[in-house]
Amino acid sequence: MEKISVYKTSKYFMIISILFSFFAGTYETSKNYFYANNVAKLNSNISKVDSDTASYKSEIMEITNFAKLIDLMKLKGYTYFPDTH
Fold first, then answer.
1. 26-41 burial by CB neighbour count: b if 16+ within 10 A, else e?
2. What is the mean predicted confidence (pLDDT) over 61-78?
3. What are phi and psi of 10, to 5 degrees?
4. Which segments cross the bilayer (predicted)?
5. Of 16, 24, 50, 85, which shows the fewest CB atoms inside 10 Å?
6. What is residue 77's three-state secondary structure?
C-alpha cells in the first residue's frame, strides 16, 4: 500500500480551496452585478412611467380645458361648434 504524502495532500487541498474561493467570488460578483443591473433597469422603467404619467396629465388637462371652454360657450349661447364635429 502506498503511503499518502502530507505535502501532496495539503497541496491538492490548497489548490482546491483556491479554486473554490475564486469561483465563489466570481459567483458573488456576477450575482451582485445581475442585481445592480436589474435595479438600474427598474429605475429606468420607473422614470419612464413618471414621464409618461406627466404627459398623460398634461393631455388630460388640455381635454378638460377644452371641455370647459365648450361649456362656457354653450352658456353664452353658442350652439354650433364646427371643430368638434
1. eeeeeeeeeeeeeeee
2. 85
3. -70, -35
4. 12-29
5. 85
6. coil
The amino acid present at 27, given as its one-letter code, is Y
**The residue to which cell 412611467 is assigned:** 49
Amino acid letter, 65: N
Q: What is the pLDDT of residue 85?
A: 47
Residue positions counted in the chain = 85
* Residue recorded with cell 502506498: 2
Comparing CA positions, the residue from 44, 54, 81, 45 lying closest to residue 66 is 81
Higher local confidence (pLDDT), 28 or 48 = 48
Helices and strands, counts by H and E, the chain: 1, 0
**Alpha-carbon dihedral sign for residues 78, 82, 84, 85:** positive
